[in-house]
């Protein structure tokens, strides 16, 4: 004699990504730009114009699959620029607040012209923020977020001069970001910053 069917279930709780401390970037400087004074004057700035890859401090957890460059494999973790509320910036034109951009020791401008920003996505779940000197102007810097690095990574590339305060030999640009694991759980906002030293006349 067979009893009626029985049923049982197992509950599996989700793992979520955790935001830790990001790495510290090397100090960049305008002395490395093509038309800069590489040395001399009242202040000798760094010649370095790229941070290289710096950790974003994201612990992805169990759902840590990475996206493939093949469009058919879009499943995987991602990282994007965020505003104070944690909303990830959409691709296209953005305002400074959409990427949590802050500055001390200067202004978000180049030669007195306000910077204009756009965000693009990468095939592997990252984003690239490009800052230009006004609409359609020359590129001043790019900031790339990489979701494939073990803890996520950012790279800041200085391409043009930024406006430092008259009394400041360096400025610091901060930005906000958040990592999202492969099944859509978003970590708390993280923040990181880059310091850029000023070129001076000789």
Regions with pLDDT < 50 over 5+ consecutive residues?
Answer: none
The rough form would be described as elongated
Q: Characterize the largest beta sheet: strand count, sense, and whether it forms a barrel.
A: 7 strands, antiparallel
- In round numbers, the mean pLDDT is 91
Helix amount, in percent? Answer: under 10%
Number of helices: 0
Q: Determine the structural class based on helices, strands and strand pairing.
A: mainly beta
| Secondary structure: number of strands | 16
Q: What fraction strand?
A: 35-45%
Q: State the end-to-end distance.
A: 99 Å
N-to-C SSE string, H for helix and E for strand: EEEEEEEEEEEEEEEE
Explain this structure to me?
- It is a single chain.
- This protein is mostly beta strands.
- It has strands at residues 18-19, 28-29, 54-55, 58-59, 78-81, 92-94, 102-104, 106-107, 109-110, 113-121, 127-133, 139-146, 153-158, 163-164, 170-180, 190-197.
- Strands 3, 6, 9, 10, 11, 12 and 13 form a seven-stranded antiparallel sheet that branches.
- β11 and β12 form a beta hairpin.
- The protein is elongated.
